[in-house]
Design goal:
This protein has about 350 residues and is of the alpha/beta class. It has two domains: about 100 residues, Enolase-like, N-terminal domain (Enolase-like, domain 1, 2-Layer Sandwich); about 230 residues, TIM Barrel. Helix content is about 35%, strand content about 25%. It has 13 helices and 15 strands. Strands 4-5-6-7-8-9-10-11 form an eight-stranded parallel sheet. The longest helix is centred in the first third of the chain and has 19 residues. The structure holds magnesium ion. The site of magnesium ion has 7 residues, from loops. Magnesium ion (MG) binds next to loops.
Length: about 350
């Protein structure tokens, strides 16, 4: 069987500014397996490149992976050698798409999931120093039920000001993502101030990723009844979850960090067992990666699946989002098609 690897560059309509830096475009890799397609998005602040992902996929012996046939999905996934998580994600999604198409149903149906259980998705407003532009971006998203604010400007007062302005400017629910920007003492200082705003759903990745004990140190410094603290950069895959429990209240799962749908489902099971909240996020990716995540979204508490919205050259059409709510594809497999 033939595996085709297609590196792509996704261009953004608006520069995406977060604590890790500014992007005007992001790399990704599509992989095609007969009528199946998968995607592994590259996040520039992790340790792999588009070339690493392409090299893994080009060297993959797909006939060996599919030795038991496409219906034996678990066997195929077990045959994948270790590699960069976006590469594993791309091939995992393509194998799921191929499998579900053979069976003739959309993925969420094969998993027995009800689209009605899907929470509304948040949409992100990234950092800008220009307050007029910031207010314009907020107003453009006023019809969405949840707005996610990127914090981590390097200045705690400026971070708090972002929340104050957004709270005054919109009546949507808010959530914030510091993208690892604060140290424990800074986080302990700003979080209670942010918690004073009503409509604040949760606080994502307040701390750097390096030391998981920081989550427990922070918890000890915070008053009770804070909004949930959600680990993103600190929660790459299921191996990270146990150490976070008790410090973080939840995890943000992204397929490209986890290395695919199967690992994401393992993360969901483990986090639920530990009583943690589950968010399903994304990076900048095409409708292939976003739609794959949408199939899992009925299982989670918070969805943050807007990573294709500002891409101006998305090659695919998949799950369509309207004002925070997804219309699920009805075609077998992922249900994506070329634009
Ligand atoms: Mg995040």
């Amino acid at each position: 069987m033939k595996l085709t690897v297609e590196p792509i560059t996704l261009k953004l309509g608006t520069p995406f500014h977060i604590a890790h830096g500014v992007s005007v475009a992001r790399d990704s890799v599509l992989v095609h397996l007969e009528n199946g397609v998968g995607e592994g998005a590259i996040m520039p602040y992790y340790d792999y490149t588009q070339a690493d992902v392409v090299a893994y996929l080009e060297n993959l012996d797909i006939d060996r992976v599919l030795v038991e046939g496409p219906l034996m999905l678990e066997d195929a996934l077990d045959c994948l050698p270790p590699g960069p998580s976006p590469a594993l994600n791309a091939i995992d999604i393509a194998l799921h798409d191929f499998w579900a198409k053979k069976l003739g149903y959309p993925l969420y149906r094969l998993w027995g999931l009800n689209p009605k259980d899907t929470p509304p998705t948040s949409v992100t407003v990234s950092i800008t120093k220009d307050e007029t532009a910031f207010k314009q971006r907020l107003r453009a998203k006023k019809d969405f039920p949840i707005i996610k604010l990127k914090l981590g400007t390097g200045d705690l007062a400026a971070d708090e000001e972002i929340v104050r302005v957004a709270h005054a400017e919109t009546s949507s629910l808010l959530c914030v993502d510091a993208n690892s920007a604060w140290h424990v003492t800074e986080a302990a200082q700003i979080i209670p101030k942010l918690a004073a705003y009503d409509r604040l759903l949760f606080i994502e990745q307040p701390l750097p990723r390096e030391d998981v004990q920081d989550w427990h140190r922070l918890r000890a410094l915070l008053p009770p009844k804070m909004p949930p603290l959600i680990a993103d950069e600190s929660a790459q895959n299921s191996g990270d979850i146990l150490a976070l429990a008790g410090g973080a209240d939840g995890i943000n799962i992204k397929l490209t960090k986890a290395g695919g749908l199967r690992e994401a489902r393992r993360m969901i099971t483990l986090a639920r067992t530990l009583g943690m909240k589950i968010m399903l996020g994304c990076s900048i990716e095409s409708s292939v990666g976003i739609t794959a995540a949408v199939h899992l979204a009925p299982l989670v508490d918070y969805a943050d699946l807007d990573g294709n919205l500002d891409v101006v050259n998305d090659p695919y059409i998949g799950a369509v989002m309207e004002k925070g709510y997804f219309r699920y594809p009805t075609a077998p497999g992922l249900g994506v098609s070329l634009r």
